[in-house]
Design brief:
This is TetR family transcriptional regulator. The chain has eleven helices and no strands. It is mostly helical. Helix 5 packs antiparallel against helix 6.
Length: 217
């Protein structure tokens, strides 16, 4: 049946070479998604493009992986959906974003899913796909935060990058290198010490040197 504009079938064009349900389709989708995400990033990758590359119907991608964000999580082999953390951050008042981000992330790292995340980070350090890691941090984890703090005069990109660098440092010190006393400190102690810095990065004053303006001549 031919789809019409606005109908549920508009994202399911008939195409030759489709192989819904065939053995290997799931692996083909993952391979196509990994290539697309690595090359184009999260924002510029669509379910339709991944399906086309894999030779399947877009509906099959949704069947196996759900949303684009969940597909990305499967590609980077996240042991827990990032939506669990992001939904808590979305609901936080603006003046509590720093604490909420740190509390939510530490909760995941210290949970049974933590070892899987550490393993993923170790694989990236050992020569994994850095472009995927960068896309995940900037376009999935921090983009929704950036949109909340952006103003007409500050797009928030430096601010969320600073938050990302701080969180990566905490993960490295607490879970990878095991620097004491950070490795064994209660999460609440780290939240008390670090959350105000994250909040300043997000909504406080950040002094940067003035940029040189190009010579009009």
């Amino acid at each position: 049946m031919t789809a019409t504009n606005g109908s549920p079938g508009e994202d399911r064009p008939a195409r030759s070479g489709r192989r819904p349900g065939q053995s290997g389709a799931r692996e083909a989708i993952l391979a196509a998604a990994r290539a697309r995400f690595s090359e184009a990033g999260f924002d510029k990758t669509s379910i339709r493009a991944v399906a086309s590359d894999a030779g399947v119907d877009p509906a099959l991608v949704h069947h196996y992986f759900g949303t684009k964000q969940e597909l990305f999580g499967a590609v980077v082999q996240l042991p827990v959906s990032p939506e669990l953390t992001l939904s808590a951050v979305d609901a936080a008042p603006l003046d509590q974003l720093g604490e909420t981000i740190l509390r939510s992330v530490l909760g995941v790292w210290d949970s049974p899913a933590g070892p899987g995340i550490v393993a993923m980070v170790r694989s990236i350090i050992a020569g994994g796909d850095v472009s995927l890691a960068r896309s995940f941090i900037l376009e999935v984890v921090l983009e929704r935060v950036r949109q909340r703090i952006a103003t007409p005069h500050d797009d928030g990109r430096l601010r969320v990058a600073l938050v990302g660098s701080q969180m990566i440092g905490v993960l490295m010190a607490r879970k990878i290198v095991a620097i004491e006393p950070m490795a064994s400190s209660p999460a609440e102690d780290l939240i008390t010490a670090i959350a105000p810095t994250l909040q300043r990065y997000l909504t406080g004053e950040i002094t940067t040197p003035p940029r040189e303006q190009p010579d009009p001549a």
